[in-house]
Amino acid sequence: MLADKTLKEYLNETASSAPAPGGGSVAALSAGLAAALTAMVAHLTIGKKGYEELKEEMRAIVQETEKYKEIFVEYIDKDSDSFTQVMKAFKLPKETEEEKEIRKNKIQEALKNAALVPLEVARNGLRMMDIIEKAVVKGNKNAVTDGAVAAMLARTATLSALYNVKINLGSIKDAEFVDKTQKEVSQIEEDVVRLEKEILEKVVL
């Protein structure tokens, strides 16, 4: 599994000629790093002088970001797996009309999944912005730049995941699925850019 590799191994595999891991997997990793940094800010706030009354709120942030971190780690592999399934579908036999029909359906099924996987990363990346904002505004001021980096990473991870959604939508024939997904993609893009801007404006250096 990609998530079990060392950092150097993962980077080397990403840099190789292998098509996976690619941008979608890296987007999930970036979102996981954003979650980890947010947890760090909360940990650095708990028990510190002047922040005593925020102990429970910061503990809640740690718990929430731990859940997100686990989700994103899972999607590091899920994204690469979904791409592999698309490639497998394209390699199915197409000699007879029946084989062609099966192949076509399998390709479409795999493409939909390959769009939905990064979409879920983007959804969670957006959801995490509210937690990051709490860490930036209320957390230890000595770690505020770590919170800012978390916001920027979450925004980049979300937009990166959405690019992987878009490229798959271009090959999907189900017009209703494409239209519905495109609308959600546009809304997430708009929201995550706005929220990142709002968070960074609250960073006091």
Would you give an account of this structure?
- Helix content is 79%, strand content 0%.
- It has helices at 7-15, 23-43, 55-90, 97-138, 144-169, 175-201.
- It is elongated, with a radius of gyration of 20 Å.
- The mean pLDDT is 96.
Q: Sheet with the most strands?
A: none
Main CATH class: Mainly Alpha
Kindly state the mean pLDDT as a whole number? 96
Helix content: over 70%
Shape: elongated
Name the beta content range: under 5%
What is the third-level CATH name, the topology? Four Helix Bundle (Hemerythrin (Met), subunit A)
How many DSSP E strands? 0
| Parts with pLDDT < 50 across at least 5 consecutive residues | none
Any idea what the CATH superfamily is called? Formiminotetrahydrofolate cyclodeaminase monomer, up-and-down helical bundle
Total count of helical runs of at least 4 residues? 6
How many domains? The number is 1
Which architecture per CATH?
Up-down Bundle
Alpha carbon gap, first and last residue: 40 Å
Please state the CA-atom Rg, rounded to the nearest Å: 20 Å
Decide which structural class fits the backbone: mainly alpha
Order of helices and strands: HHHHHH
What brief labels describe this structure?
205 residues; mainly alpha; Four Helix Bundle (Hemerythrin (Met), subunit A); 6 helices; elongated
Short description:
This protein is mostly helical.
Task: Give the topology.
Blueprint: H1 7-15, H2 23-43, H3 55-90, H4 97-138, H5 144-169, H6 175-201
